[in-house]
Specification:
337 residues; alpha/beta; 8-stranded mixed sheet; 8 strands
Length: 337
């Protein structure tokens, strides 16, 4: 078995895509579509301020998109050449041809993107579902990952918080269509405010402009015929990954990660328990931990400056350590000759 051949869960073919309104592109960002075998991915680029900067790839969480990184990417554009991917079925990426929304399926999509672009190794940064995906990528393809940053990664918990139960319930057959019918009278703004109250430590930190953009994006997503299917299947993928044991279990794979790792946890996170921070710090060897007591599930959106500084320190320390290690090897070689 090659490193990219991970166990997968086959599902029925995904529904056909439709022509929805255009997604928002912030100033300084570029959007492009990348056609790969079996899937097409939309990539949001924030080019580095100068040519030749190390590449970075940002991976969003369940129900999110590459726009979740628009606050963080410009804060690091002097350090990295950033790209954020819309996972299959999310953002502006259509569903995968095989309908596979498992963590493994999403990880395979990221690996294919990096292999096709030849951008690796990258500074890989993931949130929630994207954190689980990034963990798997770093474990099975260490050659593609220079550093790893995980913001509230969706790693298995024995006792999930009650506020996270609706996400798990969404994975059950028939629940997504039922929820869609029960909430059909909800306005996009009501839906957005519900998401903000769940994902933010303090929803009041969202500006009026930010709320407007979020509502516009929600309106766009609700027009997609595969919206609820992608949500339900990806939720099921997370639940399945939580129960997967052996060498493909996420905690076992966390122990195999070789890349220098930064872990970010929010004290008010209602989806990933704050108490998991210590377990994660022990699992990822030599990792560094940033805890933000007032942050929720999306610290990179609530406290982008703080998260950016921690990522910057990780990258700069790693880059500085590499030449030193190379110099030491050269010295050892010369002494042994």
């Amino acid at each position: 078995m090659s490193s990219t051949e991970l166990p997968e869960t086959r599902t029925a073919a995904a529904p056909a895509t439709s022509h929805a309104r255009a997604v928002r592109v912030a100033e300084g960002e570029e959007l492009r579509s990348v056609a790969l075998p079996g899937l097409t991915l939309t990539v949001r680029a924030r080019p580095g301020d100068t040519p030749g900067l190390a590449p970075a790839l940002y991976v969003h969480g369940l129900g999110g998109s590459s726009q979740n990184w628009s606050a963080l990417m410009p804060l690091l554009s002097d350090l990295v050449d950033g790209e954020a991917v819309d996972l299959p079925g999310f953002g502006d990426s259509p569903p995968p041809d095989d309908g596979n929304y498992s963590v493994t399926g999403h990880a395979r999509a990221v690996i294919r993107l990096l292999d096709a672009a030849g951008r690796g190794p990258v500074h890989l940064i993931g949130n929630s579902l994207g954190g689980a995906v990034s963990t798997r990528v770093a474990a099975v393809r260490p050659d593609l990952v220079r550093t790893l940053t995980l913001v509230s990664p969706a790693l298995p918990e024995l006792r999930a918080q009650r506020t996270a139960w609706p996400t798990a319930l969404l994975a059950l057959p028939g629940v997504a269509p039922l929820f869609s019918r029960l909430t059909r009278d909800w306005t996009p703004e009501q839906r957005v405010r519900g998401v903000l109250s769940l994902c933010y430590g303090d929803p009041g930190r969202v500006t009026d402009e930010g709320l407007l953009h979020a509502v516009e994006e929600m309106e766009r997503r609700l027009e997609l015929p595969y919206f609820w299917d992608a949500m339900a299947r990806s939720s099921r993928g997370i639940v399945d990954a939580y129960t997967l044991g052996g060498q493909h279990g996420l905690w076992r794979q966390a122990e195999r990660v070789l890349a220098p790792t930064l872990l970010v946890y929010g004290g008010r996170d209602q989806l990933v328990s704050y108490r998991m921070a210590r377990k994660a710090a022990a699992a990822f060897r030599g990792s560094r931990l940033l805890t933000l007591p007032d942050a929720g599930h999306v610290a990179m959106m609530e406290y982008p400056e703080t998260v950016a500084q921690a990522v910057r320190e990780l990258i700069e320390d790693t880059e500085h350590a590499a030449p030193a290690a190379e110099t030491k090897r050269d010295t050892d070689d010369s002494c042994g000759s």
